[in-house]
Amino acid sequence: MSEHISKRYDHELEGVRTGLLQMGGLIEQQIEHAMRGVIERNLPMLEEVIANDKKVNAMEVELDDACIHLIAKRQPAAGDLRVIMSVVKIITDLERIGDEVKKIAKMGRHILESDAVFVPRVELRHAASLAVDMLRRTLDSLARMDVGSATEVVRQDKEVDAEFKSIMRQLITFMMEDPRTISCGLDLLFIAKAIERIGDHSKNMAQYVVFMVKGTDVRHGGLAAMEAAAASD
Amino acid sequence: MSEHISKRYDHELEGVRTGLLQMGGLIEQQIEHAMRGVIERNLPMLEEVIANDKKVNAMEVELDDACIHLIAKRQPAAGDLRVIMSVVKIITDLERIGDEVKKIAKMGRHILESDAVFVPRVELRHAASLAVDMLRRTLDSLARMDVGSATEVVRQDKEVDAEFKSIMRQLITFMMEDPRTISCGLDLLFIAKAIERIGDHSKNMAQYVVFMVKGTDVRHGGLAAMEAAAASD
Questions:
Q1: ipTM
Q2: I need a surface site. Which of A126, A179, A214, B224 has the fewest CB within 10 A?
Q3: What is the C-alpha separation between B56 and A151, in angstroms, rounded?
Q4: Which part of the chain is the PhoU domain (chains A, B) (predicted)?
Q5: Hey, which bits of B107-186 come out as E strands?
């Protein structure tokens, strides 16, 4: 491959990566708005989050398309191909995070529209900020090709899971004490579940970043596999 | 590309597709065993489903790897590349179905181990058999590159969603009437949720089959986009 072509390839790959980071930025904002909408009972904000999911979807289609064209035109060798294939997988996880955010906004809207009076008082803020932090760290590890940071995301996922379990226990207590809170409690439970899934998707993406940089598939090896890959040359 | 190379490519692509169908077959069986384990209260069967998820994961890694090697070695043109990229996306959805099945088995185990006495009597069988049917039809549409069959899967997804909502309503009624059923009711709710998600993943896969065959991205256009693509030449 001539240097000229190789530079063009790098440039295009960089374009895809920039697009991915932009998509990630939009989704970060979506999560924050969805949670504010739920907590501050702001219906217009929730409606905007739901409408914005179309933008996320359009970005997914565009980026997938760019990846296919990049491979077809440049026919990259194994190493570069690994990077693009990881990007292709990351795109899917990002879009699925978008779907979870839309679900949060819809659940929030459902709570507002049903004029629920018996709302269990659970704290979702901490779990949500953990999930946003995981996503941000993942995007950062992608931008800087930083395996150590990606490993930290896998560690954080355990915290989000623990938060979810704690929220579920609190909700069960509320619901058992006053069955009138059950209906709204389930909406809140599904919001907590969506937050937990955002953590899962961020973890998946962080594992693809490791694959991208190190060439080691750490998807099913747990934290130990991540740490071993991060420590290797 | 000489005919000789092209034939080898076809042969390898066929190998990946066969691997995908085998993975799909294993997952179908996993869903059936998980549901039988839950309904017949069969703990060893649930344990086996949980253990078998490792096989599903190994198949994912192997197939992803085969796809990357296929692209690197054969450098396929746009049309063939579209097929492989769809396969890469389908692999992820299949593995995620595997994760949902594992969750069902773990929830079932949790119900058995907690010796729950107050078990709400909801019927999960119909939803589960719909989801299995969707998966089977998707794999079939993939084997035969049949867009019509893939469109039917998207239609069926609405049925699974309706089943989930009905199960949730029933569970809410049980839980409100007798709060002692809340804890076990939530386990059953998450099993129903996992079934609904199996339907979602099958729908995603069916949409990739359409992309594979028709080159039209129908992921975000709903049933109408699928039907239009199926009707086109």
A1: 0.90
A2: B224
A3: 24
A4: 20-106, 125-209
A5: none
